[in-house]
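In these records, each integer encodes one residue's backbone shape. Here is one protein:

___
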Amino acid sequence: MPNRQFPFVQLDVFTLAPLEGNQLAVLTDARGLSDAEMQKLAKEMNLSETTFILPRDGKTERDKGVQVRIFTVQQELPFAGHPTLGTAWYLKQQRPDEPEIVLDLKVGRVPVRFEMRDGQLFGEMRQSDPVFGEYHRHSDVARVLGVRETDLDENLPIQTVSTGLTFTVVAFREVATLRNLTVSWPQIAAYLERPDGPAFFYFVARSGPNQLRARMFFYNGEDPATGSAAGCCAAWAVKHGALASDEQGLIEQGREVLRPSYIYVRAAKEADRVVNVRVGGHVVHVINGQVTL
């Protein structure tokens, strides 16, 4: 059987500096790969996510968007933030005249708009309108994390939110407490278990006006930047008054793993609903490669 070759790029997302932000591998033409091969390649890349672009004819892509599939080392995801932004950024390089790149993901169509900001290409995705879930008692979450209840910000509720992927947003009172937090995936997995799919904690603390520090632990370690969680966090912050409607906020994540990331967020409040959740940032291209099977 002859060798099959598949080009890929590796990007750093939510950063302007190479070797910072969150790493992403993008197979730029994955036609011919089976589901099982995509999963194995994601494990081979060993990054938090790998995406697979499946080109289609021009009319289909104009109508439905560019088909993209997202895999972690363990499973396929219907949506994830930094893979969406990074993959759209790569496609924008191939289609410079298009101000918006629409991805056709398992969760549906996700548009990503681009503009020049500070002399660099800046992308902003619109995520699905948030679905707000259950509230959690501070005492229960503190016990699971092994921290004092007083370490958590009692002025902000702990709530589960989804804009395509599910996160429970937990606010700490002090950045220092968040910075020193040590948890393991087995420690928190049982609490987060849900019958309808994966869920994660997203830990935040106020670090300045309209600024948050954040951390996210999952089964592959600690994530340098979590765009899907940032969208949930933006919706949560607007709902509960931590961020004004349509005000730009900045989430800084990844310092604890030496990959600082800068995620720009905003959302709008209409009556009692939160809508138009947007998450943006910059991307850097660092590697070109080829997979041979």
User: Anything to note?
Assistant: The mean pLDDT is 96. The domain at 131-278 is CATH 3.10.310.10 (Diaminopimelate Epimerase; Chain A, domain 1).
